Amino acid sequence: MSNEVMDFVQVCLRPDYIERPEIEELKALLCFNTIDWAEVAVGRTEPPSSMRQV
Fold first, then answer.
1. Segment 23-49, tens digit of pLDDT
2. What does 17-33 look like in DSSP terms, one character per residue?
């Protein structure tokens, strides 16, 4: 697993939910640095995953 993905997993799995990141903090992680979130918001590009993939 890449360091970027490991960072994502570590911040999402913090035992204290108060310490877990908000959505904007998650979107700023390096593993998402190639995603243009404004384009996702207006529907011009797909998000990195969808619930159909889960």
1. 999 889 888 888 899 998 998 988 777
2. GGGSPPHHHHHTSGGGT
Give the pTM. 0.66
Structure tokens at 1: 């697993």
Q: Where are the domains of the chain?
A: 3-53
- Calculate the dihedral angle through the C-alpha atoms of 39, 44, 47, 50, rounding to the nearest 10 degrees: 150
Rounded-to-integer distance, Cα 46 and Cα 9, Å: 21
Token pair of 53, please?
């993939």
* Interatomic CA distance for residues 18 and 21, integer angstroms: 8
Rounded to 5°, the CA angle 48-14-22 comes to: 50
